Amino acid sequence: MTHIDAGAELDPVHPVPAPLPRARGLTAAEVAERVARGEVNDVPVRSSRSTVDIVRANVFTRFNAIIGVLWVIMLSVAPIQDSLFGFVILANTGIGIIQEWRAKKTLDSLALIGEARPTVRRDGAAAEVGTSEIVLGDLIEIGPGDKIVVDGECVETDSLEIDESLLTGEADPVVKQPGDQVMSGSFVVAGGGAFTATKVGREAYAAQLAEEASRFTLVHSELRSGISTILKYVTWMMVPTAIGLIISQLVVKDNDFKDSVARTVGGIVPMVPEGLVLLTSVAFAIGVIRLGRKQCLVQELPAIEGLARVDTVCLDKTGTLTEGGMDVRELHALDGNDETYVRTVLGALGDSDPRPNASLQAIIETYPNGSGWRCLQALPFSSARKYSGASFSEGDGESSTWLLGAPDVLLPDGDPALTETERLNEEGLRVLLLARAGRELDDPSVAEGAEPTALVVLEQRLRPDAADTLRYFDEQNVRAKVISGDNAVSVGAVAGKLGLTGNVVDARRLPAEQHEMAEALDSGTVFGRVTPQQKRDMVGALQSRGHTVAMTGDGVNDVLALKDADIGVSMGSGSEATRAVAQIVLLNNSFATLPSVVAEGRRVIGNITRVATLFLVKTVYSVLLAIMVVISQVEYPFLPRHLTLLSTLTIGVPAFFLALAPNKERARPHFVRRVMRYAIPGGAVAAFATFATYLIAREYYSGPGSLAAETSAATLTLFLISMWVLAIIARPYTWWRVGLVAAMGACFLLVLVVPWLQDFFALKLVGAPMPWTAVGIAVVAAVTLEFMWKWVDRRFPA
Hints:
Transmembrane segments: 59-78, 84-101, 233-252, 272-291, 611-631, 643-663, 675-697, 709-729, 736-757, 769-789
Helix content: 40-55%
Membrane topology: Multi-pass membrane protein
InterPro entries: ATPase_P-typ_cyto_dom_N, ATPase_P-typ_P_site, ATPase_P-typ_TM_dom_sf, ATPase_P-typ_transduc_dom_A_sf, ATPase_P-type_domA, HAD-like_sf, HAD_sf, P_typ_ATPase
Protein name: HAD-IC family P-type ATPase
Subcellular location: Cell membrane
């Protein structure tokens, strides 16, 4: 990769030409004619799945198909009590659709707020329109930070530099002249101009490629891929076990056919963790809705999870720690220069740039131009160059060339002006140098030998919420790195005012080799004079050390780093280019919203890890019970109604509350391993204890009704063990978690004591010895669970 510096020949310096007739663009009649012909940029920017996709994704699933077939079978051979699991699936699917639809509405409304609105010139007047309203032949005006939304041909250029790195991978901006092509997906880094749309809608192939690259490059989701892996393993276990169970119950055992079918289905249904995917999507959807209320647009759902896993946040100072505007605090004339003349120069420089950045805007507001000087040549500001410039005819026959930019870039080391600059930087002030150039503006070495004339001191406005946000990240063990193009000392002083301490590093002294750069980044906290390409390299270096990196920014110099970071966060007031590549857009421009996103991600990941353990304990004990039944050649101990009751009370209802509860636990990797290390021993203990109770009951009971009594005893054991698993998962306890576990136990007790519920669920404990034996076995299993899970924690740490 190459870097741009003051000597780069691509710096576009153009004489200011005599005014040419300004292109008027299309007329209203021509626009209407093109709309009628369908020559409209009708490729929608989709921020979320369509309603049809949401319904399809929730209804047509592999497990819904399995459950649906089993439900139809049960409706035809057994009482309605044994078909309750089907109604639960219907309710789950409905909840999933409704919540995702609500999240879609939130996303779409926020996306509309944050949508890019290009400036189009029609009938000689410029107006903002929606991207989808652009027609073929439209004249589109562009300036720094604007994203090129359709393919086109330049008509007007004013020192126009286009960054095409997202399309070509080439880091250097490309200078554009009238007649040059511009590609959708690129963006303006300096200068301005206008181009005619030559390809719109689906004809603009590059637009589709750029949109695909920027909007649908999915964030890696360990949660999503982990659940897919688990479901794949579950399917592999389920199929042969279910076949064995069917043969065992229907062929080997000589039972009533309908009862055998019911018990076979009762063995297969609980193997399916049907609510796990539902609760994951619901948790994400509710997270999107909650963040939407805070004006946070999540362009990719897994970004919520990704930010929760972040351990390093790279912050751009301007627009993130500080507000966009600045104020001129003072003006220091150097070497006896006349301050009145300096003010005149600054006013003329401000007037020479039609699209001033925040620094120049502050100068324009303080020193309005009234000199009548005529601009002959212009050099727009570039974040890679660190300065701008212009040549003027001063009206009295004199001409002069001026540069305005970073003192430590324009001046050689040891210059006396740098000492004063350093002192001001230490106060957190931003300092620009006004220098008179002795060379022509189009000279590649124009900055060499420039005569320092004045220091312009700018005061930056700190965001009032920045200190609290940085403190939050520190408390959560998330390292903050401030990466800025400004002077390192000045940036360090600003960071210090916000309570962020650490080594301050001038990025010009950073090693280029990735390994060495990563070491420097680990030891440093504040980095100044960082070029756009360096920002990208720094993100890569941090990632090479295993860090999960989030990058915040709002300017065009942040685009490459935002694109490469694990999570890109853009301010809503940022450039179109940054909003296009970011996964999260803070529409209210509040850096203080980030902790909410992190907290939401931690809630989702931590809670889904909890409830996944609940679901998979059930899957494990169901598979093991079925295997033991097949080997022992006995009736399956449960009817579907028994397991529906157990699943509802020990998994379904508790999981819903646990999945949506507050959770500040830091997200940890290895989701599958962390879940399975608890689910396998928990499920194994539950299966062996339940089957032991069932076999003892078979020996204890005899005669008519013995199978129902055996089932009731086994159900009691399985419920008590499942409740203990729930009690472990619910830790650490709060009043509502204790209340939740107690309420589920009370509901089961109600079933055991209310006669009509006993009949409905076919649960009746017979005698005293066997029920108390079932309780005793459950107690032993609970103690075993406690010791086993503690051993697992030590033996297989997450």
